[in-house]
Amino acid sequence: MASAPAQADFKTRLQNLIPKLVLAPSLAVIFLFVYGFIIFTGYLSFTDSRILPSFNLVGFENYSKLFRLSHWTTSITNLAIFASLYIGISTLIGLSLATFLDQKIRGEGLLRPIYLYPMALSFIVTGTAWKWLLDPGIGLEHTMHLWGWTSFHFDWIKNSDYAIYTVVIAAVWQSSGFVMAMFLAGLRGIDNEILKAAQMDGAGNWQMYRRIILPQLRPAFLSAFVILSHLAVKSYDLVIALTGGGPGRATELPATFMYSYTFTRNQMGIGASSAVIMLMTIAAIMVPYLYAELREKK
Amino acid sequence: MSFLKIDNVTKRYGAVEVLHRVDIDVQQGEFLVLVGPSGCGKSTLLNMIAGLEEISSGTIAIKDKPMNGVHPSKRNIAMVFQSYALYPNMTVGKNITFGLEMHGVPKEDRDRAMDKVADMLQIKPLLDRKPGQLSGGQRQRVAMGRALVRDPDVFLFDEPLSNLDAKLRVDMRTEIKKLHQRLGTTIVYVTHDQIEAMTLSTRIAVMNGGYIQQLGTPKEIYDTPNNIFVAAFMGSPSMNLLDAVIRIKGPDAAAEITDYNGHPITLPLPLPAASLAGRDGTKVVLGIRPEAITDPDGADKSAKIVVQMQNKIDVTEPAGSDTFITTTMVGKDVIGRMRADAHVNAGDIADLSINMDKAVIFDPKSEDRIV
Amino acid sequence: MSVATQDTALRTGRVARTLIYLFLLLMALFYLLPFGIMVINSLKPLSEITGGNMMSLPQEWTLDAWRAAWSTAQIGVEPTGMRPYFWNSIKMVVPAVAISTVLGALNGYVLTKWRFRGDTILFGLMLFSCFIPFQIVLIPMARVLGLMGLAGTTSGLILVHVVYGIGFSTLYFRNYYAVFPTELVRAAMMDGAGFFRIFWRILMPSSGPITVVCIIWQFTNIWNDFLFGASFADFDSQPITVALNNLVNSSTGVKEYNVHFAGAIYAALPTLLVYIVAGRYFVRGLMSGSVKG
Ligand SMILES: Nc1ncnc2c1ncn2[C@@H]1O[C@H](COP(=O)(O)OP(=O)(O)OP(=O)(O)O)[C@@H](O)[C@H]1O
Ligand SMILES: [Mg+2]
């Protein structure tokens, strides 16, 4: 309702004021703790802050230092590998599960929750479970050897060239069920009459799937991509629990980089600049998406 | 003194003006219907009367008291919404008395008022049910009960029948009309159904594009539409509008059209030639209602100006009580209304009687009626 | 067809169907195994784990690891077990969920039924706050909590979780109330009900499902949080996720795998229970957290 004119009676004016008063605390908190803090961290990224914030501006020095650090380039390379595999494999598995589950499967009601339950777990729990399962001395490799397959080798988690892929495995395990749920909802939302019409037109299975069903899942693809990519950039807990960033620095990601530079290596300026880069990465994905979503909703 | 006065009211959303300087005076006991195509601003006007939308400029007064800025609940009006807006979690009884409760009316008085209204609308047995357990017609009644119980100065209805099926709509229409006659309340009623507008109202305001096109009794609106928009909007099937040329011969004026073959036909007009001075030989738009084009046996015996012609019938549509025919004049489809048992078939060349008593003509530029 | 929703099914032969079932069952195994093996091994004595096969059932069933993980395991420097941290988490989660849900409901109500110029932009700003990498607020947050005297306290964590939870709870209620008929609000307004009365009497009675969705989402997220707990808490306020990480990664002594597993299960139990009891709402929350509306 529009704002009340000057001559409005008391009740009308009060009723126009209350909603804004109710919204105000949340807005104040968001503006301070989110946007205020973003500005603050942004500012720090241009200062020579080390163990404590300093307000001494040094221009882009932190950023140029940052990109010269091999630790950071490793982190973003790892992020690139992790994010693309994590998004790609989760989407593939999620889509396959949803498509197959949609074939009038008996026991669907039982299978669906099994695929989805890891989403309810903390990444720390997921990390704990997989850390052990992937440990060659006691987990999968050990078991295979006990079962007589002595040539079986699976020590990626101890191998700095492959450790990042174990993070992918655990992360996919945790979120692919969620992607399945999104695609399943998309499939169930497709208008049956369109499918019947396509059948009448003589479309075969594969054509039906490629030409009619997949295109209609576009919104689900988009949402899955947006959600997974922002989870990827934010990934922190899983790495900490699964590999602790190791072996060596083999599984460092920007999030772990930022934490260690800021809080254990006392390079707050550099830590802040890495956080700014993370924010910009996510903003590049989220801002257009949110803008489009909110526009449509008008 | 008018009871509800809408004076020079304008509504803007940002830079967009959706209502332009609307003036309407409503007398006590009147049944005013706002009618017009979708998006013309009917609901907006009604919501401004209710106080649910702010008035951008102008005044709305009830019983001479300006209502601008007065809270909706303090205007002593009641509103029946299109979706009925019954509170889903409250029983019918609670729904009806919620407003009284909000106004601090004691319980016994609320119950008494509720009983009275429930009796009047015959919804006594429904009082303990939830809205979800009611049929469309019952919901409609409860919504009216909720409005009635407040004993308001003005009732506002926003398309209250549009969610009902055709049969129920006609029944409820009659019921609303009876209620109005019995209680003598003042009603402003929005609809885009022109039959509802004709049957219910004491006066109609036809709106288009945020302007009032014409304000008048149903008969005025139907017989003497102000302009082509009103002529075409009111009536079903709608008025035939034909390009014609004015021919003036002494005191008599006529409009010339062509039949299906392109041969000229001269139709005398019910207007004196004087009112058409200077238009001889110019183009006008001639409006003839379908019921004025009939088979000769079905023609109105009391009509003063009747023209006989022969024309080819393109389509017949038997509707039970009448048979509608489509024929071609001036190269356009023209609808006529025959008696149900008139013998016409598609493709026939049939005799037609054209009753020109109520024919109207419009200026093709301004689209206003020429009087 | 009786189940209209399943017409996206393709026409498939017997071989294809068998393969589909096989794939689905294998995947089910993939999801079940890591956690399932963890549960089974938490019921073994340590010697059976280090000396035996993780895939076999315990020869000797024992709850010792569970007991140890709960009350005697070494976490950090103290042999307290998970118990105090479990309660820390509870003390943090309950108020944080309650406050953010109430605020979200009110915000959603204002943003849909009392709209004003610029409200969509404000909502967009709130929503974006859910997706920021929290690294961007860690430094100033640590300082502000310190200034407010909330560093290392449960109240501090509650504040943090409320602040960064409002966006989602507002999103849920806004999307839900957006399709709640505005005519009902207008009718109540004409009946004389004010802002809070309309909320309480008209909207709240229909808000059960979305409230459950919101509570479950917030509960799961806040319970599972690690970053804020690790950054802003000390012994008296550390949540269970941090404790679990400390338990598993403490480098001293023998690795008591069975105790680690039991600890992990304690950390997972509350959210798993919620998932089992109210899975339907959990899924709905996930969906509306991503696909709006
Ligand atoms: N909040 C708003 N902001 C901008 N324009 C609006 C708003 N509400 C209504 N309008 C515009 O005002 C015009 C009138 O709307 P209104 O709802 O009064 O139409 P109506 O005559 O009731 O139509 P209908 O028969 O479809 O109910 C429309 O063109 C509409 O698009
Ligand atoms: Mg309307």
From TrEMBL, chain A:
<protein>
    <submittedName>
        <fullName>Carbohydrate ABC transporter membrane protein 1, CUT1 family</fullName>
    </submittedName>
</protein>
<feature type="transmembrane region" description="Helical">
    <location>
        <begin position="268"/>
        <end position="292"/>
    </location>
</feature>
<feature type="domain" description="ABC transmembrane type-1">
    <location>
        <begin position="76"/>
        <end position="291"/>
    </location>
</feature>
<feature type="transmembrane region" description="Helical">
    <location>
        <begin position="21"/>
        <end position="46"/>
    </location>
</feature>
<feature type="transmembrane region" description="Helical">
    <location>
        <begin position="79"/>
        <end position="102"/>
    </location>
</feature>
<dbReference type="InterPro" id="IPR051393">
    <property type="entry name" value="ABC_transporter_permease"/>
</dbReference>
<dbReference type="GO" id="GO:0055085">
    <property type="term" value="P:transmembrane transport"/>
</dbReference>
<keyword id="KW-1003">Cell membrane</keyword>
<keyword id="KW-0813">Transport</keyword>
<dbReference type="GO" id="GO:0005886">
    <property type="term" value="C:plasma membrane"/>
</dbReference>
<keyword id="KW-1133">Transmembrane helix</keyword>
<feature type="transmembrane region" description="Helical">
    <location>
        <begin position="162"/>
        <end position="187"/>
    </location>
</feature>
<dbReference type="Pfam" id="PF00528">
    <property type="entry name" value="BPD_transp_1"/>
</dbReference>
<comment type="similarity">
    <text>Belongs to the binding-protein-dependent transport system permease family.</text>
</comment>
<dbReference type="InterPro" id="IPR000515">
    <property type="entry name" value="MetI-like"/>
</dbReference>
UniProtKB/TrEMBL annotation, chain B:
<dbReference type="GO" id="GO:0008643">
    <property type="term" value="P:carbohydrate transport"/>
</dbReference>
<dbReference type="InterPro" id="IPR040582">
    <property type="entry name" value="OB_MalK-like"/>
</dbReference>
<dbReference type="Pfam" id="PF17912">
    <property type="entry name" value="OB_MalK"/>
</dbReference>
<dbReference type="GO" id="GO:0016887">
    <property type="term" value="F:ATP hydrolysis activity"/>
</dbReference>
<dbReference type="InterPro" id="IPR017871">
    <property type="entry name" value="ABC_transporter-like_CS"/>
</dbReference>
<keyword id="KW-0547">Nucleotide-binding</keyword>
<dbReference type="Pfam" id="PF00005">
    <property type="entry name" value="ABC_tran"/>
</dbReference>
<dbReference type="InterPro" id="IPR008995">
    <property type="entry name" value="Mo/tungstate-bd_C_term_dom"/>
</dbReference>
<comment type="similarity">
    <text>Belongs to the ABC transporter superfamily.</text>
</comment>
<dbReference type="InterPro" id="IPR003439">
    <property type="entry name" value="ABC_transporter-like_ATP-bd"/>
</dbReference>
<dbReference type="InterPro" id="IPR027417">
    <property type="entry name" value="P-loop_NTPase"/>
</dbReference>
<feature type="domain" description="ABC transporter">
    <location>
        <begin position="4"/>
        <end position="234"/>
    </location>
</feature>
<keyword id="KW-0067">ATP-binding</keyword>
<keyword id="KW-0813">Transport</keyword>
<protein>
    <submittedName>
        <fullName>Carbohydrate ABC transporter ATP-binding protein, CUT1 family</fullName>
    </submittedName>
</protein>
From TrEMBL, chain C:
<feature type="transmembrane region" description="Helical">
    <location>
        <begin position="92"/>
        <end position="110"/>
    </location>
</feature>
<comment type="similarity">
    <text>Belongs to the binding-protein-dependent transport system permease family.</text>
</comment>
<feature type="transmembrane region" description="Helical">
    <location>
        <begin position="20"/>
        <end position="40"/>
    </location>
</feature>
<keyword id="KW-1133">Transmembrane helix</keyword>
<dbReference type="Pfam" id="PF00528">
    <property type="entry name" value="BPD_transp_1"/>
</dbReference>
<dbReference type="GO" id="GO:0005886">
    <property type="term" value="C:plasma membrane"/>
</dbReference>
<feature type="domain" description="ABC transmembrane type-1">
    <location>
        <begin position="86"/>
        <end position="278"/>
    </location>
</feature>
<dbReference type="InterPro" id="IPR000515">
    <property type="entry name" value="MetI-like"/>
</dbReference>
<feature type="transmembrane region" description="Helical">
    <location>
        <begin position="157"/>
        <end position="177"/>
    </location>
</feature>
<dbReference type="GO" id="GO:0055085">
    <property type="term" value="P:transmembrane transport"/>
</dbReference>
<dbReference type="InterPro" id="IPR035906">
    <property type="entry name" value="MetI-like_sf"/>
</dbReference>
<protein>
    <submittedName>
        <fullName>Carbohydrate ABC transporter membrane protein 2, CUT1 family</fullName>
    </submittedName>
</protein>
<keyword id="KW-0472">Membrane</keyword>
<feature type="transmembrane region" description="Helical">
    <location>
        <begin position="259"/>
        <end position="283"/>
    </location>
</feature>
<feature type="transmembrane region" description="Helical">
    <location>
        <begin position="122"/>
        <end position="145"/>
    </location>
</feature>
